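Pinned message: reference record for 3-deoxy-D-manno-octulosonic acid transferase
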Amino acid sequence: MWKLQSNKALPFSVFYFILSVVLYIVALPLLILLSLKPKYKQSIPARFFLYKNKRFSSEDGIWFHVCSLGEARALKPIIDCLDGEDIKITTITHTGQAEAKKYDAEVRYLPYEMFLPFWAKKQRVVVVLEAEFWYMLFAVAASMGSRVILLNARISERSAQRYLQFAWFYEKLLSNVEMIYAQSEADKNRFLALGARNIEVVGNIKLAAEIKKTKDFDKPHEEVIVAGSTHLGEEQSILDSYVSYKETNDSKLIVVPRHPERFESVYLLMEAYAKEYNLSLSRFSEEKNFFADMILVDAMGELNNIYNISDVVILGGAFREDVGGHNPLEPAFFGCKIITGKHFFHQKELFKYVHHVQYVDADGIKEALDNAKELPPSIVEEKIDLDRVIDKLKK
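Predicted structure (C-alpha cells):
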C-alpha cells in the first residue's frame, strides 16, 4: 500500500479513503444495475470491480489520465513528441478508452478511488488533463514519488463558485501537484484562488491537434447542414428549424449524435419528421451515402469527413444548460459556417480562437441558418507551442 510522504496529510487521506469505501458500499446496487447498460458495460466493471483492469506492467513511465474522447484525442501531438517513452493512459469513458487504444501505450480504465492505493504503480510523471480532480489519484501518485502535472487545466466560470466553497479541499488536493499548465489567465486566477502554485498559461493544447479527414465523400449539390455532436433535446429544435428552412432552400440535413447509444431514438425522431413533412431519410450505416433529405450518421469516427463536405454546422452540446458545448476547431478547420448555442462554458477558451460563429438559443436556429448565407466561413486564428510542456515531461 502507498505511504504518505507528509504526516500532516495522513489523517485527512485516511478519512477520505474510508469515506470512499462507505460511498462504494452504498452505491453498489446502482453500480451493478448500471453495469448492465451498454454504455457502461465495460467502464463500470473495469473501474468499480477491476474486471479486466490489471495494473500497469511497469514503473517509471509517463502516465496520462484523461476523461473521454476529446481529451484522449488531444494527447496525440504530445505523445508524438514522446517517441521512445513508456506511455500509460487511463480514461473514464468507453469512447475515451477506444481513442486511447490507438496510441502505442498501455491503456486502462482509472479505478474508483478506494482501489488506487493498491492498484497504482509509481511512474516518473503523472499528467492529468483538464478538470479530472481525483484526490486519491493525486495523493497516491505524489506519495509514491511521482511528479504530478496538470495539463490543459481549467476551471470554468460556472464551476468556480462551487470550487471556492470547498477551497480547503482543493488546496489539499492541489498541494500534491508540481506544475499546472492552465488554458487561460482566467483559469490561472481561479487556481490561485484555490491555493495552487507554480502555474503557467500555455493555452489550450487542443489547438495543437492535427485535424484531418480519413476519407473523401462526394459533396452533394445541395447545401449541406450537419448537426454535429448533438444531445437529447437538441435534435428536436434542429429538426423544427430545418423543416422550416427547407421550405425555401435546397438543402439536406446530416445528424451526428454525440453518443452512439442514442442512434436508435434519434432515428425514430427523424423518421417522424420525415413522414410528417414528406422528406426522405436514410441511415449512413446502411446506405453509405448522402442522397436523402435527412441522414442519420449512426457510425463513429466520421464527423471530420462529414465536416469536409458541409456548408453549415449546427454544433451541439451548447443548446442545453448542462453539457457545456463541444470543440469548434474541427468544423472551423474545414471552413464550415458554425451555429451553436450560448451554453458553451466548457469550450469557452477554444471559442475565443474561432471567428465568425453565431451563438443563438434553440429557437434562433432557423434565423441563424438564414443569416449564414451572408456570413464568411469560420476560421481559427491561433497556434500553441508545446515545447515547454514536452521538456518538462522529459525531465
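Pinned by admin. Summary line: The chain has a mean pLDDT of 94.
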